[in-house]
Write a structure and sequence with these properties.
CATH topology: Macrophage Migration Inhibitory Factor
Number of domains: 1
Shape: elongated
Order of helices and strands: EHEEEH
Distance between the termini: 49 Å
Helix content: 25-40%
Structural class: alpha+beta
Largest sheet: 2 strands, parallel
Oligomer: single chain
Family: Belongs to the 4-oxalocrotonate tautomerase family.
Number of helices: 2
Strand content: 15-25%
Keywords: Isomerase
Organism: Bradyrhizobium daqingense
Protein name: 4-oxalocrotonate tautomerase
Strand order of the largest sheet: 1-2
Number of strands: 4
Pfam families: Tautomerase
Length: about 80
């Protein structure tokens, strides 16, 4: 039973609003399931897909919260 986890950042969205539409989520689920079927021979009905929407304050980059990392990078290249 394969389990696929897709994490999508919520960048550019209103707090509390979904970052991707229901149609986009359905396409991700379908595409991921079909990929596992085509590559590994896994039946569609045995594949689980989990989509997580991650707020930007809940992830980091380069050892820093992502917003701080971007601020510092912009200051260096500015």
């Amino acid at each position: 039973m394969p389990i696929v986890t897709i994490q999508v950042t919520r960048e550019g969205t209103t707090p509390g609003a979904p970052s991707i539409t229901a149609e986009e989520k359905a396409a991700l689920i379908k595409g991921s399931s079909e990929l596992l079927r085509d590559v590994l021979g896994k039946p569609l009905e045995s594949t689980f897909v989990v989509i997580e929407e991650i707020d930007t304050d809940n992830w980091g980059w380069g050892g820093l919260p992502v917003q701080e990392f971007r601020h510092r990078r912009a200051a260096r290249t500015g």
